[in-house]
Design brief:
Blueprint lengths: L1 H7 L3 H23 L2 H17 L10 H29 L12 H22 L2 H12 L4 H8 L3 H15 L5 H9 L1
Helix pairs in contact: 2-3, 2-4, 3-4, 5-9, 6-8, 7-8
């Protein structure tokens, strides 16, 4: 409670102490939610930026850790929504009637397909190396879990673990139906 008062008085040393104390717990919390080092680190940074920016609005009767984790959770939700909004914008491109300088449906579908496929491969490349390899062998090269386990000298349960975490990471960005459509289509 005392630290919140000091934060409100623009005490940068207290802010640094809070950052040093909570950056890793926040990172672990976010990483468990999205399974992405990059996005977990980004949201941690945004969380501390918001903490400083809105320090005057902090509740002095509520523990700093509760407020920090709330900021992190809402920031993560906001970032996922922004990505989904951008995706919808791309998918809706050309939705106006044809003949007014807007591509027809077949061109629009081709553009959407290419953009979606490119995004999928960017997401795949963000996966840790072993998880990326397992995902590609499973979803792109259509190997069974047992085949992948044999090829990589790991257990089928480990293959399943990698696939589960890969899909959990991608789910906020794509529905499973879109992933299936891209890989099969």
């Amino acid at each position: 409670m005392h630290r919140i008062s000091e934060l409100k008085e623009n005490n940068e040393a207290v802010f640094r102490d809070i950052f040093n104390e909570y950056q890793y717990p926040l990172y672990r919390f976010l990483y468990q939610k999205i399974d992405s080092e990059f996005y977990a680190k980004e949201v941690v940074q945004l969380t501390f930026i918001k903490l400083w920016k809105y320090r005057q609005q902090l509740d002095p009767d509520l523990d700093i850790s509760i407020q920090l984790f709330r900021i992190a959770r809402t920031t993560l939700i906001d970032e996922i929504r922004k990505l989904q909004t951008r995706d919808r914008h791309y998918y809706n491109y050309g939705a106006s009637p044809a003949g007014k300088g807007i591509p027809d449906d077949s061109t629009t579908h081709l553009i959407s397909y290419r953009e979606t496929k490119a995004k999928l491969f960017r997401l795949i490349n963000m996966l840790p190396p072993k998880r990326r390899e397992v995902f590609k062998l499973s979803r792109i090269h259509c190997h069974t879990n047992n085949e992948i386990a044999s090829m990589l000298s790991i257990s089928p349960k480990t293959v399943e673990h990698h696939l589960t975490h890969a899909l959990r990471f991608m789910r906020p960005f794509f529905s499973l139906l879109i992933i299936f459509y891209i890989l099969v289509g």
